[in-house]
Automatic annotation (TrEMBL):
Protein name in UniProt: Uncharacterized protein
Organism: Corynespora cassiicola Philippines
InterPro entries: AN11006-like (IPR038883)
Lineage: Eukaryota, Fungi, Dikarya, Ascomycota, Pezizomycotina
């Protein structure tokens, strides 16, 4: 069956001219097509229209379509009630004297009585009904569209390109037949149909899969239920091994999970925290509560970064490995290396802070003689903290002595436990910290001599161990894997208490700490000064610069001169 054109209607000509313009907001557009003399825009937003559900914004709203469709049949459209009403459409009647030669040609080939004999006051008719009256092709079996086209931005761009191509041929149709004009009319009707369905009949375009469930009442649920839901979403189900990404990212510090094949696994999992500020405040503590972090090469650096960003108090579960060792000097060597690493870390942070302070004072001094001097109240430059400097500097973390020491499993475990332990407020106590760890049974360190060095080293470092029995024994990486859980240690573990513990740790001078460690070593073994101690310790790490690019880097710990350094690249 041949498709009828809108030209078959006797009253269509008033809307077919290139100058029948409809004002939408501050922009003039052609009824039915966007710009005949310019390519279709890639992105266009009507100033007076509401938000378009698709990324490709329409230039004609449904009200405008109804107006120019009614205008095509000779309907008189009432003017908007207020001049400031940008959503109202006010079409203008164009006389024959202002028509283009192309419009006069269309009038001649279709009959001059079409405009004169057209009814002037018909009932308002919707664009979809008028399209059906013109006899355009319809198909109501696919998503409600009579043109069997998906309402997507790509489809709209395709129709626009075809419409522009057809419109560009109209000025030279002096010898053309009616099929080209009919094709042009069908294209315009097709676009009008798609606009009508996109903006009126169809719901907003959903780019997510159709089977994705939605629950708009999430925020109305009680907080306990919301946290349960966040726990199901944010849990990885496995240990998280933080690894520092040493790819150049400017001043961005990024970590990834060494247990995952992709560097963006944790980032994709935690995208829920980017929804809103409220969701972030509720879901971020749940992420640290539901997951367990393993002590690995970069875990100690990750804990330091969490302290700099104010998130360390959110940690709830940490897993570590106690190495099996039959060396009688293992405890002494571990304590000496830990003391050496902490001493060098203190000196390193002091040097970085003083260097940054000098630069700030230089800038402050230069500003005094500039055209914009600082306020009179700023008579001195405050000293920055190391956390303020290192929070946006990856190279400071990579050259930190604790980063180098973290590559040794025994040092990483003890330094992490010391950071997680609760400071002891009693100054007369022999222990400075206390921590609770989960073990299979409390006699594991006495029944197995190859694990006894762990309790001896902890006692020398001033850490009191409390055991929570019931954990299944797991052999991993040459040792026994144990866990620390915050709920067994104490009730409160907030940011204020962590900050107070840090201040209390700074109150202990270096001389006092050295004296306590020497007394502990004397108690552990009187021959600790003359004991065999290697001159240096060498180990290597595999640094990832991407999924397909890994390199081996050697690290050296000089035990005589007290120097932790990176050997090669």
């Amino acid at each position: 069956m041949a498709t009828r054109s809108r030209l078959d209607s006797p009253a269509h000509h008033e809307a077919d001219t290139a100058e029948d313009l409809v004002r939408i907001g501050d922009e003039l557009v052609t009824p039915g097509i966007d710009d005949l003399d310019k390519p279709p825009p890639t992105k266009r937003l009507c100033p007076g229209s509401k938000f378009c559900p698709t990324r490709y914004s329409m230039s004609v709203m449904p009200t405008a379509i109804d107006h120019w469709e009614a205008l095509a049949y000779g309907a008189s459209t009432p003017a908007p009630t207020q001049a400031s009403d940008r959503s109202s459409i006010s079409p203008r009647w164009i006389s024959d004297s202002t028509r283009s030669p192309h419009d006069l040609f269309l009038k001649q080939i279709t009959g001059s009585q079409a405009i004169d004999d057209a009814p002037r006051n018909p009932q308002p008719t919707s664009s979809a009904l008028l399209i059906r009256q013109t006899g355009a092709r319809t198909n109501t079996d696919m998503t409600g569209s009579r043109y069997a086209l998906n309402l997507s931005p790509s489809s709209l761009r395709e129709v626009d390109s075809e419409l522009y191509r057809a419109a560009s041929l109209l000025p030279v149709l002096s010898h053309a037949d009616l099929e080209a004009i009919e094709s042009f009319e069908n294209l315009r009707a097709k676009k009008s149909e798609m606009q009508d369905n996109s903006l009126v009949a169809s719901p907003p375009l959903n780019l997510a899969p159709e089977d994705t469930p939605s629950f708009p009442q999430m925020k109305k649920l009680p907080g306990e239920i919301r946290r349960k839901i966040y726990g199901f979403v944010l849990s990885t189900g496995a240990l998280i091994r933080p690894r520092l990404n040493d790819r150049p990212h400017g001043n961005l510090i990024k970590f990834y999970d060494g247990n995952e094949s992709g560097h963006d696994a944790i980032r994709n999992l935690s995208n829920l925290t980017l929804v809103s500020k409220q969701v972030c405040e509720e879901s971020l503590p749940v992420f640290y509560n539901e997951n367990t972090f393993a002590c690995d090469d970069d875990t100690l650096t990750y804990f330091e970064h969490l302290s700099h960003t104010g998130r360390f108090h959110m940690l709830r579960n940490v897993s570590f490995v106690v190495q099996l060792s039959s060396d009688k000097q293992q405890a002494v060597r571990t304590v000496r290396l830990i003391h050496q690493a902490k001493t060098e870390a203190r000196k390193y942070e002091e040097a970085i802070t003083m260097n940054a302070w000098d630069r700030l004072e230089m800038l402050h001094e230069n500003n005094r003689y500039s055209y914009e001097p600082p306020p009179p109240t700023q008579r001195w430059t405050p000293r920055p903290s190391f956390a303020e400097i290192a929070v946006n500097s990856p190279w400071i973390l990579q050259n930190h002595p604790l980063y180098v020491a973290g590559g040794l499993s025994c040092l990483c475990s003890f330094l992490a436990l010391q950071k997680l332990a609760t400071p002891n407020a009693d100054p007369d106590s022999a222990y400075t910290h206390e921590i609770a760890i989960m073990v299979p049974h409390a006699r594991i360190f006495s029944d197995y001599p190859r694990l006894s060095w762990f309790t001896a080293a902890a006692e020398s470092l001033g850490i009191r161990l409390r055991f929570v029995e019931g954990k299944r024994a797991v052999y991993s990486r040459g040792g026994v894997r144990l866990e620390w859980r915050q709920r067994y240690q104490k009730k409160d573990f907030g940011a204020d208490e962590v900050a107070a513990a840090a201040v209390g740790a700074l109150a202990i001078t270096e001389e006092q700490e050295n004296e306590k460690i020497q007394q502990a070593l004397e108690k552990l073994t009187p021959e600790w000064r003359t004991g065999i101690m290697p001159r240096k310790v060498l180990y290597y790490r595999t640094h990832s610069r991407g999924l397909a690019d890994e390199k081996m880097v050697w690290y050296q710990i000089d035990t005589e001169n007290g120097k932790f350094e990176r050997q090669g690249k």
